[in-house]
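Hi R.,

Quick one: here's the ABC transporter membrane protein sequence you asked about.
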Amino acid sequence: MQKWSLQQVVLLAFLAFLFGGVFMGAGVLYALLNAALTPFGLSPFANEILFGLWTMAAPVAGMLIPKKGSATLGEVLAALAEMLYGSYFGPGVLLSGLIQGFGTELGFMVTRYRRYDKVALFYGAIGTTVLSFVYEFFKFGYGTYGFGMVAALLAVRFVSVVFFGVILVTQIMKLYQKVQDAKVSVS
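And here's the predicted structure, written out as tokens:
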């Protein structure tokens, strides 16, 4: 296992606290969206629409710190930060963070930790969607829904994870690279 530098540890801690705050904000958005969808009988979609937002720490950590385990650790630490900030989801976010982070980690594993690009992120989006959906299928009782509803929930989750975890993270990484390139040209 490669050693972690102090800079990488500090970056991971920063990402955890940053995304913990993002996750808290997502909790507020979730409550509002849930309330708006409830009269139409679509409240389960509130979680699915925003789900990718809750999984962003893992792909960002994996891309910025290209080491085995960084995606999983990044998501778990962000979940811990969310919990410490006072998330009304409570300590359950830690297990969710572990599952989501490991799902993203699978994307890097599939590429044998050789690719840190959209391909690895897409594989990670598949892993995150599948693992988290199986977990939440039982947690939220999705088995009580008909096949069409379950398929729709899964599809919306996948689109959300791809949007936030692949498309948005890719854009964040492009901005990060521009900043790095600007720093080099100024030096």
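Residues 8 and 101 are 17 Å apart (CA to CA).

Cheers,
M.
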